[in-house]
Design brief:
Shape: elongated
Strand order of the largest sheet: 5-4-3-8-7-6
Largest sheet: 6 strands, antiparallel
Radius of gyration: 26 Å
CATH architecture of the largest domain: Orthogonal Bundle
Number of helices: 25
Helix content: 55-70%
CATH superfamily of the largest domain: Hypothetical protein af1432
Number of domains: 2
Distance between the termini: 61 Å
CATH topology of the largest domain: Hypothetical protein af1432
Strand content: 5-15%
CATH class of the largest domain: Mainly Alpha
Length: 488
């Protein structure tokens, strides 16, 4: 295209989808296209394909070490049995998973091989996060479907990523125009290169024969589980990159809850857990250039979000019923975590869910001590959070209140009406102003003899009395989490 100027000089750049696809697919990235096509055509049902996959990995020493490292990571290796061979890795975590890891590795290395600009890094980080979120959305599907969704979501922005990597002079022009206040990204891109990034992605996907799931997602065809997961995964990665407080997050939580047929609170927790896993996997991958660009729980205040979005219409939890099967399942999962590498946030959220949905307590809260053990501060909570206790649970620990009493004895406690006045007076007016009046369970979290925080639970919103059975189950959960944390 004539007429574009760069530093006062006219430059010729491709114009239109066809020209850009030809440049990127045939001139700049033919090796990547061949690798993606070749790997995508391998199937687990063919023994020759399994042997070929092993061969492809072993031909690249860097890819071999990366696949071995990722296969042994906590995210993929659930048994704890380590492997040093690609054949064993395929046996342990599956042909489809190894193949998708290879494709992902090839794509990320091709894009980040040199000195990537900030816009490219942001797109690659979003794509990696999108792939993880999309795969999590179809976690109940068979392995081949999960991995097809993963790769499709990873490549959903391949047009934009390829442009920022290989676009030459056009990159400088588009970047400069996008920095003008009020500039619209899509308008700028179409003005300069004669197409939109999404059309460019579709053109590359078609030229490289990347599969119906990706093509369907890019074309806005009627939703299937796969294309729906790809699009929703992309939406999640874009919204979270704008911050967990983005107005889009609440809408996406509703979409995820509907897609997975779970409640919104659970959907939010799963989004955050998946973001954390994405950061961990990027670290295992050695993709340190994008690690800090992926949002995680460190950037998010769970208590603030739940406090702001919880409502009686959307979360009628006052009369929640216990679920003994869920209770046992969570306790069983916790017992399996002892002695293994854990995600501590996942452990805490599992316990809270067990207290709330498993035992049937209206609300449950985790609070942790601040440095110096002077205060106890609310961190995570679940259930009916009327009164905004998450934000207000911040108390000094001293001998004159229930928290000093709890940490001194380091044993679970049930504050009931039968307690003597001396004990009930430890629930000061300041504490009552936050928690309200009535009975509750409270227990310290003790790691190798040192208390680090507490679990609190009650059934005040429904007004139902607490029971011995509930207190026994509450104690069981706390004992289990103490064992898991002490085994680390």
């Amino acid at each position: 295209m004539d007429g574009m100027a760069l530093d006062g000089q006219k430059v010729d750049i491709p114009y239109g989808t066809k020209d850009w696809v030809n440049r990127l697919a045939r001139k700049e990235m033919p090796a990547l296209a061949h690798s993606v096509q070749h790997l995508g055509g391998l199937t687990a049902s063919d023994e020759a394909c399994v042997a070929e996959l092993v061969k492809v990995v072993l031909e690249d020493p860097n890819l071999t070490s990366r696949i071995i490292r990722i296969a042994n990571s906590a995210h993929y290796n659930k048994t704890g049995t380590r492997t040093n061979t690609i054949s064993r890795a395929i046996s342990m975590i599956g042909f489809d998973t190894i193949r998708s890891l290879c494709i992902s590795s090839k794509v990320i290395d091709a894009l980040l091989h040199d000195a990537p600009n900030d816009r490219l890094l942001q797109v690659v980080a979003q794509s990696f996060h999108s792939a993880m979120q999309a795969k999590a959305l179809v976690a109940r599907a068979k392995s081949s479907v999960q991995e097809e969704v993963f790769v499709s979501a990873l490549l959903y922005q391949i047009g934009e990523a390829s442009f920022w990597c290989y676009g030459g002079d056009a990159v400088t022009i588009v970047d400069a125009k996008m920095r003008i206040p009020g500039a619209d990204k899509d308008d700028v891109v179409e003005e300069v290169i004669g197409t939109k990034f999404r059309r460019l992605s579709f053109g590359l996907a078609k030229a490289w024969r990347l599969g119906d799931t990706l093509l369907g997602a890019l074309q806005n065809k009627p939703l299937t589980a796969g294309t729906g997961a790809v699009r929703l995964g992309h939406e999640i990665s874009v919204a979270t990159s704008e911050g967990w407080d983005s107005p889009k997050i609440e809408i996406l939580v509703k979409k995820v809850a509907k897609f997975k047929k779970i409640d919104e609170e659970e959907a939010l927790i799963e989004l955050i857990e998946c973001a954390d896993k994405t950061v961990e996997l990027a670290r295992e991958w050695g993709a340190d250039k994008i690690e800090d660009l992926i949002p995680s729980s460190a950037d998010f205040e769970i208590d603030e979000y739940i406090g702001n979005t919880d409502s009686e219409e959307e979360s009628p939890v006052g009369n929640i019923e216990k679920d003994p099967e869920l209770q046992l399942n969570i306790l069983r999962e916790l017992s399996l975590m002892a002695g293994t590498k854990i995600d501590i946030n996942l452990v805490f959220n599992m316990v809270l869910e067990g207290l709330h949905r498993g035992i049937g307590l209206d609300r449950a809260l985790l609070a942790l001590k601040t440095p110096g053990d002077k205060n106890i501060l609310g961190r995570y909570m679940i259930g009916n959070l009327d009164g905004d206790i998450g934000k207000r649970f911040n108390f000094k620990i001293n001998k004159d209140n229930i928290f000093g009493y709890l940490f001194k004895g380091c044993t679970p406690f049930w504050l009931s009406e039968q307690e003597p006045m001396e004990t009930k007076s430890l629930v000061t007016s300041e504490i009552k102003a936050v928690l309200g009046n009535g009975e509750f369970f409270i227990a310290p979290i003790v790691v190798r003899g040192r208390s680090i925080g507490l679990f609190y639970a009650d059934s005040r919103s429904s007004g139902r009395p607490l029971s011995r059975e509930q207190f026994a189950a509450f104690n069981h959960f706390v004992q289990q989490v103490n064992l898991v944390l002490s085994s680390q």
